[in-house]
């Protein structure tokens, strides 16, 4: 890993995190919600964008790896890690690895929820 890669990720990450804050805030302010639609919006948007970018990269192999890292790991990584999970699951499905795809989806969905709950409960109990 070199300095340019680190700068690409850091600058993209700053942009992605800022976009997440703005989009999340906007959606939660203007869309009546009983679900976290701000988070859903950034996850869906990030998933759409990563799919579009990977398709674009497929046809444009001459692009700088630093530009790709800036956009995918930097911006989308800070906007949402869900986009990475989505494209990885799609690639598993596309390649016919259905068992692996569904295991990946189930483990990511239920595992993250379970661990978020465990972490939440741990901190609540430690704070008592």
Question: What does this entry look like structurally?
Answer:
The chain has 128 residues and is an all-alpha fold. The protein has 2 domains: 3-95, no CATH class; 96-128. It has helices spanning 3-30, 37-59, 65-79, 82-94, 98-126. The model has no long low-confidence stretch (mean pLDDT 92).
Strand content: under 5%
Q: What does the overall shape look like?
A: globular
Biggest β-sheet, characterized?
A: none
Count of helices?
A: 5
Averaged pLDDT, please?
92
Radius of gyration: 17 Å
The low-confidence parts are: none
Class derived from helix and strand content = mainly alpha
Helix content: over 70%
Give a brief outline of the structure.
The chain is an all-alpha fold and 128 residues long. It is built from five helices and no strands. The protein has helices spanning 3-30, 37-59, 65-79, 82-94, 98-126.
Explain the layout of strands and helices:
Elements: H1 3-30, H2 37-59, H3 65-79, H4 82-94, H5 98-126
Helix pairs in contact: 1-2, 1-3, 2-3, 2-4, 4-5
What tags apply to this protein structure?
mainly alpha, 0% strand
